[in-house]
Amino acid sequence: MADFERIETSSDLEALAKDLLRQKVVAVDTEADSFYHYFDKTCLVQVATRKQIFLIDPLAMGGVESLLPLGPLFASPDVRKIFHAAEYDIFVLKRDCGFQFANLFDTMVSAQLLGYPSIGLAGIAERHLGLKLPKDEQRSDWSVRPLRDAQAAYAAADVAHLILLTEKMEKELKKQKRLEWAQEEFETLTRREWPEREFDKLGYLRIKGARTLDPVSLAVLRELFLVRDKRAREIDRPAFKVLANRAILEIAERQPTGEAQLAAIKGVTDLIVRRLGRGILDGVARGTKKRHGPIPKKLAGNGPPRRRMDRAAERRMTTLKKWRAECAKKHDLDPGVLCPNATLEAIACDVPANAAEMATIAGVKGWFAREFGDEVAGLFTT
């Protein structure tokens, strides 16, 4: 593999984008800065052909909109795009640039369907190639320029071997007759859309320990959660870097009334007291005046809401879980990859009579319905 080339001008990117459209396959990865910023963005796009690696730097070109020449590449059905764990890459590229995707291959999804014990890129590279990929830049701030040589080398390594790994994994998928499963998963990824980012007003209830608080302490936690988010937006920092969850939970429990009491809490530094102390104490005061109401039994998640199961459905769920455990072991798959709990619950509630009916249930994957639908439906026949 040739040394990587940095792409830092619009003219170079436009020329590269045209050249990449003539390739049959490219490997792609992205680096973003969500660990360091509230308003995160795509900071680097790595692309590898069979002969060369390119590090495309949108920040050097003025911003993420400079990546638009890559749109035809990602949308082309004639060029295979290989990612590892494509979901986040597709999310940020769709969000930042509005790209559409076609002809995708995901090595992590493939590893899941092949039953690998380690599905990370490092584990797959070691399994197939005996290589140890660098890990020391995983928490780098990719928004800082210039990039260090170590960062560039790490970013290049993420795409350097994806084409070769795909060739090996595709052979395995064919051998295990799971290539069609993988292709369906890839197609689903290309079609996925995400709603516009909204602030989660109930996010404080997801903090570990929140549900054990009394109504007054929980009301305080809610106020502190809002204070922290406001500050995070102002300084463009992730909320957890403004004040840790453990710290705001303890503040909610102790309910300090002055800066000395606040400073005594673990995780509250002198800097936090100086810059945010007044806001925290005001939040505590507001919370103590308004008790928290009943806690919602279910918080909104990424998927469709789960239905309440009656006793008959619960018995079917038990039967399904037993079947899943045995089937997953037989096929060397993680049970959650075979069929997630939410999908099992939908099956237990709908009680499909055959594979065709199974395929109509939300969340049931096509390959699962074809391969196992009749068998699962048969569990409920009398």
Key phrases:
3 domains; about 375 residues; alpha/beta; flat; 6-stranded mixed sheet; DNA polymerase, domain 1; Nucleotidyltransferase, domain 5; single chain; about 10% strand
Describe the structure.
This protein has 382 residues and is α/β, with parallel strands linked by helices. The chain folds into 3 domains: 188 residues, Nucleotidyltransferase, domain 5 (2-Layer Sandwich), CATH 3.30.420.10; 86 residues, HRDC domain (DNA polymerase, domain 1); 70 residues, DNA polymerase, domain 1 (Orthogonal Bundle), CATH 1.10.150.80. Strands 1-4-3-2-5-6 form a 6-stranded mixed sheet, with helices on both faces. Strand 3 and strand 4 form a beta hairpin. Helix 9 packs across helix 11 and helix 14 crosses helix 16. It starts with a strand and ends in a 5-residue tail after the last helix.
Summarize the structure.
By secondary structure, the chain is α/β, with parallel strands linked by helices. 50% of the residues lie in helices and 8% in strands.
